[in-house]
Amino acid sequence: MDFIAVDFETANSNRSSICSVGLAIVKNGKLKETKHFLVKPTPNHYDGINMMIHGITDRHTRKEKTFKQLWKELKPYFHNQTIVAHNAAFDCSALRYALESSNLAFPELDYHCTWRLSEIGLDLPDYKLDTVSEHFNIELDHHNAVSDAKASALIALELCKINNVKSLDELSSNFGFKVGRIIKSSKTYKPFSKRR
Questions:
Q1: Whole-angstrom Cα distance, residue 132 to residue 194?
Q2: Does an H or E element contain 8, and which?
Q3: 32-58: per-residue pLDDT in tens?
Q4: Among candidates 115, 99, 90, 85, which has minimal Cα distance to 23?
Q5: Considering only CA atoms, which of 116, 112, 113, 159 is closest in space to residue 135?
Q6: In this structure, are residues 139 and 157 in contact, taking their beta carbons and an 8 Å threshold?
Q7: DSSP alpha helices (H): ranges in the chain?
Q8: Are 79 and 107 a contacting pair, CB within 8 Å?
Q9: Nearest one of 94, 75, 89 to 16, comparing CA atoms
């Protein structure tokens, strides 16, 4: 089972304003490595609430590449990959808006949401990343992009393990979800959703 878990942090209320990218790379069902990128956000300003949540400010990113400048390096982690995120609705829309604002072609990818999968597969008071991480005894530095991505990857692996499945596609299918896709036109955007 191969996939890449991802987490984006944003600088302001604009979904395109990615300022931090965390990646957790899973190969053959094992977490192999993590990667972190700081990004000069687009638009380049920070809202107080965002800074309070993740602790990233202009001084951390003013000399970093923009998402558009960094995309050549990031693209192999997204194109023709299976992506996982906790609250994929947010992370995949951030990716979509960042690509659109940079006039970049969309990668071909499938995605799965560990939040939605946890809602079906677990019985917890809520399904926030910190709650699900605690349930599985996963160490978490919440809103640190690398830590969030790593937690999402480990949650995905745990959900597959306890449900005795060999892939995220199989898990999603068993739980009645259609696999998510990111498509350029908002009218044809296909979220990770329950089958009707």
A1: 20
A2: strand 3-10
A3: 999 999 999 999 999 999 999 999 999
A4: 85
A5: 159
A6: no
A7: 48-54, 58-61, 67-74, 88-101, 114-121, 129-135, 145-162, 168-174
A8: yes
A9: 94
Supply 72's token pair.
Answer: 């050549």
Q: Residue 112's closest CA among 180, 183, 164?
A: 180
The pLDDT score that the predictor gives to residue 12 is 97
At position 140, the amino acid (one-letter code) is L
What residues does each domain of the chain span?
Answer: 3-194
Radius of gyration for the chain, computed over Cα atoms and rounded to the nearest angstrom: 16
DSSP 59-106: HHHTTSPBHHHHHHHHGGGTTTEEEEETTHHHHHHHHHHHHHHTT-PP
pLDDT surpasses 60 at 99: yes
Query: Quick one: pLDDT band at residue 186, thresholds 50, 70, 90?
Result: very low
Provide the mean pLDDT of the chain. 93
Residue 52's pLDDT is: 96
Tell me the C-alpha distance between 96 and 185, whole Å: 10
Q: Among 5-14, 46-55, 186-195, which stretch is predicted with the lowest mean pLDDT? A: 186-195
| Structure token digits, residue 163 | 């449900």
CATH level 3 topology of 3-194: Nucleotidyltransferase; domain 5 (3.30.420)
Furthest C-alpha separation in the chain:
47
Total-model pTM: 0.92
